[in-house]
Amino acid sequence: MEAFFSGTFASDFGKDYPLRRPRDHRPAVDHNPDDDRQVADERRSLLGLAAMALIIGAATGCVGAIFRLLLAHADRLRDAMIAWAHGHAIWGFLTVVGACGVATLVAAGMVRQFSPHASGSGIPHVEAVLREEIPPAPFGLVPVKFFGGILAIGSGLALGREGPTVQMGAGIAVFAARVCRLCWADSRVLLAAGAGAGLATAFNAPIAGLVFVLEELVQRFEHRVAIAALAALATAIPVARLLLGDAPDFHIGPLSYPSAESAPLFLALGGIAGLLAVAYNRTLLATIAVRDRFGGLPIPIELRAGLIGASVGMLAWFAPELVGGGDQITQRALIGHESVGILGGAFLIRFGLGALSYAAGTPGGLFAPLLVLGAQSGLLFGAACRLAFPALSIQPEAFALVGMAALFTGVVRAPVTGIVLVAEMTGNVTMLLPMLGACFMAMLLPMLLGNAPIYDSLREHTLRLERQIRQR
Question: Rounded to whole angstroms, how far apart are CA atoms 168 and 243?
Fold first, then answer.
């Protein structure tokens, strides 16, 4: 690890190497052959990085696709178990609660025993590594994230698949860089590319994967990072689609272009999403703080996670459609098949369930649960607007779609990623302009209220965890 951050490697951090020198108008006698050799070396280095990114992307696409397939099987297995259990009264209830609790307990135990940085989303850890704040994790993180994520999300925790896939893609890239003995500057480029391939695979959204790398991970445009990310995406998505198919993750009916009169309504939706984002961030961080505050009690981490899993199992017994990653909930909201009468209650349950699930300390991301809440809140707002303004011919499903991008933007503060992600996942570009207005408001209000982006706050928690690990 120290080799990544020592010597001349540290001075290369963040450089963007040009492919071509500016034309030199000086006399030929001043020409320095060393400059030509340096340019040639830089081109060979870039070509090597691109070749490695192609391999890393294919590996990430394969691992991410298998991860998604196993999560789908885990969801079906959980639903089948609940259906069977309802025919066995109290023993069935205990079976569901016990199975969910044990699965969560085992996932948390794997994290504590083998790879503490596999806890939670993983994206804050990737960002901290890219900023040279902590060293990359050993390759053992990848299998812990893979199997721990299947157990945790499959048990019904309201967590997303994208965080584990992003961190696994970054882990694959770090492993490849170490095998090839690359310097930190090159390793950093491949790490960002692998992480972007992971996000793209998780949501079948290649352009969003590229934007995520540049907007959220490195937060600036770097030619070498962009080229490596493009290369990784060029192989990750085809490999993943061989296993998953090439259809968008969500289906939505035809939407009309919104009228100018409805523009203020989308701005209002963005404002509501911004306030909800502040509440979500504070709730999530408060839940983590409560968990950490009681960390000194003589209760094993695994037992606390198991109790959370058991409580989720109780909810699954009564409302199996409300647990898990939530893609089916988002889909119902996008086609308007949610009853407005119960939508508000379902939103509140998912709001609290997301924070509780993240506090379990198992592998699992935030993106997918955010999309659920965004779709639900947008559908509720759209239904209310249709009742209040019947002359505008409002489609509540359009507000559900815009709400997904708006809440994501308010929580993460990555508006372009959110807009592109939702457009690719639904295959819909009709609502791009309303999404721009809603995301503007959803980003403005949290910033005015002094609320930090969620991954900045979680990265600080990751750094504290790193200090605790070093002190052991």
Answer: 18
